[in-house]
Amino acid sequence: MAEKGIEIRLDHVTKRYAGQKAAAVDDFSMVVPAGEIVVFVGPSGCGKTTTMRMINRLIEPTSGTITIGGEDALRIDPDDLRRRVGYAIQQAGLFPHFTVAQNIGIVPGLLGWAKKKTSDRVDEMMDLVGLDPGEFAGRFPRQLSGGQQQRVGVARALAADPPVLLMDEPFGAVDPITRGHLQDELLRLQNELHKTIVFVTHDFDEAVKLGDRIAVLGDRSTILQYDTPDAILANPADDTVAGFVGAGASLKALTLMRVRDVELGQAVTARSDAAPSTVDLGDEKWLLVLDQRDRPSRWVQLNELRRVTSLAGAGRPVQDSVTLQSTLRDALEAIVNEGGRAVVTGGRGEYVGTVDLATVTDVVQQRRANS
Amino acid sequence: MNVLEYVADRWDRLSLQAFLHVSAVVQCTVLATLLGVLIGVAVYRSPAGSALATALASTILTIPSFALLALLIPVFGLGADTTVVALVLYALLPIVRNTIVGLAGVDPAVSDAARGIGMSRLGVLARVELRLAWPAILAGMRVATQMLMGIAVIAAYAKGPGLGSEVFSGLANAGSANSMNQALTGTIGVVVLALLLDGIYVLVNRFTVSRGVRG
Questions:
Q1: DSSP 8-state assignment for residue B157
Q2: For A87, which of B107, B113, B123 is closest by C-beta distance?
Q3: Any idea where the ABC transmembrane type-1 domain is (chain B) (predicted)?
Q4: Sign of the torsion formed by the C-alpha atoms of A177, A179, A182 and A186
Q5: Which end of chain A has less neighbouring CB within 10 Å, N or C?
């Protein structure tokens, strides 16, 4: 159903503003592979937004060529081009006088879709970004939270099913927690949709999390390094890139790895209705108590286990756990919170294993040895 | 004869005058809105153009209405033409100024998004920018209408239509029978009609401004 991404190719693209000596974008060449997320990251004013805006010709390049899926973008009528390229920006840029449904349906409307097809599509899009159509379709943007507005912005950009999506700091104006959720959702969407996405941000952590590739840009949009996040973290091309990667590259690299990629440990477990005397801890000092649906509930220590008559209320509750999809950085956080070992759960919240500090440090050292 | 008896006695003529008064003001407001919005759209992107348009419109407003009519009569003669020109000129300032303010107040991110998702330049103006500036434009129209209700009275001096002729003939024949009634009827009539029109603006605002941007 969904149209997959197509390749974007920029060839010797230059933007020069009248009356300015230096070019704003100087001889920029890049291939954005089909179906990948490429993140432009760089300091404010480096020309990353200008570069992105030349792809849908909100800014006309002074020279050079841009092809989208093999077609010369400079020969397409700009309005037509923009209807075929999704566009999402900071603070969503929603039309305040339109309802959520009208905002999402605007590009299909411009493309002349039938009313029924458009309204079906709007419902589908709202489901896709996690907004209940019944509740939100008739609302106006000002009646939404910042995160909900951004979701509508993404839904609007995707409504006409464009193969290419341009996103200019779309999550820049929301709080860090909402931002994390929105990033997760974008990755989930991308897993289904496989669009070609050009994403502009000044936040390197966001770039590492989202990008299949990252282009670190310097002044006049010169490409300092264009590579996978892994490669950039391991081998920054020069001091400027290294400065941008910033301190804690090892910690950042942990966001690239998922809990499912490492070998899990196992704790001794028992159901909460088991008799404490039947539990054999072996060499372990802690027992993990599971509830009736195998979800982790409490940790019980060896000497306490000897004293209690029921496991139901014994020990201390499990505070923080991670899933197989969590990043190792999240896992590290949970390990620190839990005091050395964190519980890993599966899709239904059931216990699947544990991850500890040694596992994480091993992974970091292995990465360093490989690069 | 007191005022009420006077009104009842001359109801036919007075109601026609009242209708003509309102009709002239409403038509001139609409005409001024078309003109004012066009001017606003033409200049709002340029700070210098905006300043110039606002300054010109303000200058017109500083000319006393009597003087303006006196200036217009040699050109357009006595009657409706002169009245229409004078009223439209006076109505321009609030409308031009509010159009410029309204359009300039549209969040650039919203216009950028509209362009970015493929709206034509005209589409952005008609479907986004003017729609968002509409509450301001409507407020300008409301001020203009209130102002014109009063100025239209003076237009009777140029033999224009409306309740102004009651006021003028009342003043001209001061001391004679019914002169007080005439002046009072004209004045109170204008005030009552102005309040009615203002009420209509509240309704128009309710039905034409999106709930998403209503205060």
A1: G
A2: B113
A3: 18-201
A4: negative
A5: N
Query: DSSP string spanning B1-19?
Result: --HHHHHHHTHHHHHHHHH
Measure B96 CA to nearest chain A CA, in Å: 22
Of A79, A80, A97, the CB nearest to B213: A97
Enumerate the domain spans of chain A. Answer: 8-246, 260-370
Q: What is the pLDDT of residue B213?
A: 86
pLDDT of the residue at B135: 95
Give me the pLDDT at residue A75, please.
92
In B, minimum Cα distance to A98 occurs at B212
* pLDDT tens-digit map of A289-307: 998 888 999 998 888 888 8
Average the pLDDT over B171-185 and give the result: 86
Has residue A250 got a pLDDT over 80? no
CATH number for the segment(s) B3-208? 1.10.3720.10
Contact indicator for A207, A39 with CB cutoff of 8 Å: yes
pLDDT digits over A160-179, tens only? 999 999 999 998 878 888 88
Facing B118 at nearest CB: one of A94, A107, A140 = A107
Closest alpha carbon within chain B to A56: B116
Q: How confident is the model at residue A371 (pLDDT cuts 50, 70, 90)?
A: low
CATH: 2.30.30.100, 3.40.190.10, 3.30.470.20, 3.10.580.10. Which one for A260-370? 3.10.580.10
ipTM value of the model?
Answer: 0.83
Smallest CA–CA distance, residue B110 to chain A, in Å, is 5
Gap from B91 CA to chain A (nearest CA, Å) = 27
CB contact under 8 A, A89 and B119: no
CA distance, residue B125 to nearest chain A CA (Å): 13
